[in-house]
Amino acid sequence: MKTLQDYIDKLNALNFKEMYNGDFFLTWEKTDDELEAVFTIADALRFMRENNISTKVFESGLGISLFRDNSTRTRFSFASACNLLGLEVQDLDEGKSQVAHGETVRETANMISFMADVIGIRDDMYIGKGNAYMHEVVDSVTQGNKDGILEQKPTLVNLQCDIDHPTQAMADMLHIIHEFGGVENLKGKKLAMTWAYSPSYGKPLSVPQGIIGLMTRFGMDVVLAHPEGYEVFPEVEAVAADNAKKSGGTFTKTNDMAEAFKDADIVYPKSWAPFAAMEKRTELYGNGDFEGIDKLEKELLAQNAEHKDWACTEELMSTTKDGKALYMHCLPADITGVSCETGEVDASVFDRYRTPLYKEASFKPYIIAAMIFLAKFADPAEVLKKLEEKSTPRVFE
Amino acid sequence: MKTLQDYIDKLNALNFKEMYNGDFFLTWEKTDDELEAVFTIADALRFMRENNISTKVFESGLGISLFRDNSTRTRFSFASACNLLGLEVQDLDEGKSQVAHGETVRETANMISFMADVIGIRDDMYIGKGNAYMHEVVDSVTQGNKDGILEQKPTLVNLQCDIDHPTQAMADMLHIIHEFGGVENLKGKKLAMTWAYSPSYGKPLSVPQGIIGLMTRFGMDVVLAHPEGYEVFPEVEAVAADNAKKSGGTFTKTNDMAEAFKDADIVYPKSWAPFAAMEKRTELYGNGDFEGIDKLEKELLAQNAEHKDWACTEELMSTTKDGKALYMHCLPADITGVSCETGEVDASVFDRYRTPLYKEASFKPYIIAAMIFLAKFADPAEVLKKLEEKSTPRVFE
Amino acid sequence: MKTLQDYIDKLNALNFKEMYNGDFFLTWEKTDDELEAVFTIADALRFMRENNISTKVFESGLGISLFRDNSTRTRFSFASACNLLGLEVQDLDEGKSQVAHGETVRETANMISFMADVIGIRDDMYIGKGNAYMHEVVDSVTQGNKDGILEQKPTLVNLQCDIDHPTQAMADMLHIIHEFGGVENLKGKKLAMTWAYSPSYGKPLSVPQGIIGLMTRFGMDVVLAHPEGYEVFPEVEAVAADNAKKSGGTFTKTNDMAEAFKDADIVYPKSWAPFAAMEKRTELYGNGDFEGIDKLEKELLAQNAEHKDWACTEELMSTTKDGKALYMHCLPADITGVSCETGEVDASVFDRYRTPLYKEASFKPYIIAAMIFLAKFADPAEVLKKLEEKSTPRVFE
């Protein structure tokens, strides 16, 4: 695209009315138009930043982040997105705060939101918890806004839950769109979302689930590959199958990594923990059975160790389409001989794809900003137009 | 009120010259006009935000927060207030900083203040310490400004000390004013500030003290109720008595919760620690006698347990004016059967008053912003006028 | 100086083209013109702030801080500098982040920099590490920018490394320039950078090294004094000697504190750890030999204790030029009888110089802002001019 007007025209052809004052939980709760609106706004915001046009649409306001798990990239992506739009990030650190002290979600959600325009939450540790917690927060602030407690309803952005990792999957998808020169070129492309061995244990399921839940919507042939016992949520597999049918693509499963890589256009090899084990872990945690958790973790590590052959090797890469499949990862990857003895990917493969991998990550701040933008403005296209007319430089000139 | 001009007219009828370049330590150090100016600016800032008029009066500048105690609501209230005016919050975390490393208050206060317009401090843990510390900080930066070290004198906002909790009490009062339709309607109203049982121990005295020190200034009949042995600072009781005399109200004390609730228009049942015990605790802490502190805490918990009947029950509420007294709390409350087995208030009472309770809290960011605003501008009314003329939207439109 | 034009004229007489898109690692990697440009911009930014002219040149953008060591003043100086220019500080807390989790520097540097205009790093703990790490970061983001991953190349500001502490030394120098009424008055002045006893162990070498590496460039007679065994990096001594030759000053060394103080115009008495010991410590740390580190620390404390006579006493001060040498310190100082039993300086000396000491520190935020400013604008003088024409007030008026 060459001008902002191109993005605006594209937006004007889409229906995303429902996103105004909405939230972003799961990609499969959004229509195709709505997802395309996110991609379009993300590209438009990037275009404007590259052309030194400020996209600061808030004179004041807070973007609240709540991370129940360590995070560098997601933390900085959220901070960057908020800052790009003019919101100041305030981290709700439950160590510092009184959430730990028996305060209800409903109360805390309102207490922190008096001047909050956005709440970003990462809560991916326990099955059945993270997404539910996010809904509790949204219900609380929606009610608070109705009751006249909050002058605005903060928008929730799911920064990773137990079910989906929408900002990751959307950034990954936007990367694919750019690499392949447009959504229209994805039909019939083969994408392999495969498990890979990592010495670390219990990586979230939300990445593979997010990928199969989203990538199946663009007419691609999506293959989910993992050793027996590493199943993901059945509900999400059902979503993927349904998406594939609608989009004219396919969704298949295999326990054979080589089969998944064969002639693949895109490969996404990554470790995750078995759904069943995560459920058990959640139950043990609920019962405060930490001895049981230790025991479970040892079992899982042993189980993982039986699948060290699940690695993205040069040999496997050579079996992909022209030996040149696009290698993807949410990062950080466990690189054999670099970050661990045996890991998800060969060092030479990772190095060859380093630049595309970093570009893949670079879309996330814009995806988050776009999700916020679409929730805050009834006519985002009009806002982009006015911002261009105003043309306040991001960096003084 | 309907227009900003109404607030401006009200301000122009008040004398608050002394607040310019001043600080906010204790409500009873301020004149009635000064307090009314805070309420008026708070309402005006809220009015402007509701009408999407930016009140960003700082292009740059820091708002420094120093919390010696955990805090969600106060932390976010301060952050919201600073952000609303254009100041960026920097938290002086004494863990991270070198304060812990034997640096003097005077030095630290200057070192962090080169570009600080506001310093908000919460230091309520030890009798005779918090307020004194805040004065040390203010004396240091005032001298630093005189000596040409600091280009501006940061304003101190007391976010809770050992004596008063002015941002809480003022927010509570503004809530009362709105609930009763104006200060003029408060004369003769009965307010019961009563102790209530909580399983937790050692809650600060600054809330009840802040309430009796402020609420006695509006012609109300303020009753302080607590079991024997739960006295608050005598000095603050003296302030309350004196206020009541001047305002044409009353200030009485009782050891009978029922008597306090009888026909009350407003009830504020909340746990706190006995003054004498807090003094002893401070002394033990000073001597590093942690064994002694443990012992004291056990004694206090035992003492508390003798007063589980001090609870805000439906039965007690039914004895209030028309059974409909305004129930207040600074939150979080210890709710019987919710956050604890036996607590300060019945769940059904708390639930019925949830919305007003949250609204009560919603005033705090505006109260803090108003305190800053009044300290920074010689003619705040004029500034409001100009902001309205400029009418920069808070959210782009 | 009276008008902004004076600063602009001065800038226009200097050559600092190379600073555009550059970084700031070590003062001796910069030309005299480049250093003078930093001083001039720092003074200009301060002049503008004092005259309530906003110097906010960024509408959005992040300033990332990474502190490998505790810090109050440097943390707040960096935050103040970023805020003054319109950048929001995001702290990369390696506790919170995944840096600790085996993520490579190259990857992290890119992942946090998508919208970062500045990265400030303090990493002074280990010999041969800090400065090297900073270069790794800069190489990573420079490559990332070349590869189209980063839309801008963040500027690195060295907030203290194992070799130099340029923001400290530059702030100290600007203080000297102001105290002596201009660089032109420094020729032939005697500056004594001397070791002093402190009960604490292992203070960084970067301060004395930064001082001798910078102060020798202005025609002063710089004396480095310390007990035998407290040598600093030989490479930096070589830099100092070379600077002195070029500037028409001198650089001498002595093991006699009195000799250094004799007739000195400026004294900078401060504790540091011996280079050799720091090297050994780094090696032990590398080998994870924590027992060895404990042993080494005990040895060093014992060694320090043999030199308690190395203190900035009234008696020694009386031997300086007219008994009135300018006393300097980077703060916090170990003050005899105040922060410790026996320390670097007599309480009466410290008290007499408190105001100049605090002023000395007050230059650091402006020095940091100037380093950023010079890296971000091809024609800083033009930018200052336009900011003056625009004259947006920092505080609304």
Automatic annotation (TrEMBL), chains A, B, C:
Transmembrane segments: none
Every Aspartate/ornithine carbamoyltransferase Asp/Orn-binding domain range: 212-372
Any GO molecular function: ornithine carbamoyltransferase activity
UniProt xrefs under Pfam families: OTCace (PF00185), OTCace_N (PF02729)
Residue intervals of the Aspartate/ornithine carbamoyltransferase carbamoyl-P binding domain: 27-176
Entry keyword set: Transferase
Annotated family: Belongs to the aspartate/ornithine carbamoyltransferase superfamily.
The name this protein goes by in its record: Knotted carbamoyltransferase YgeW
Organism: Faecalicatena orotica
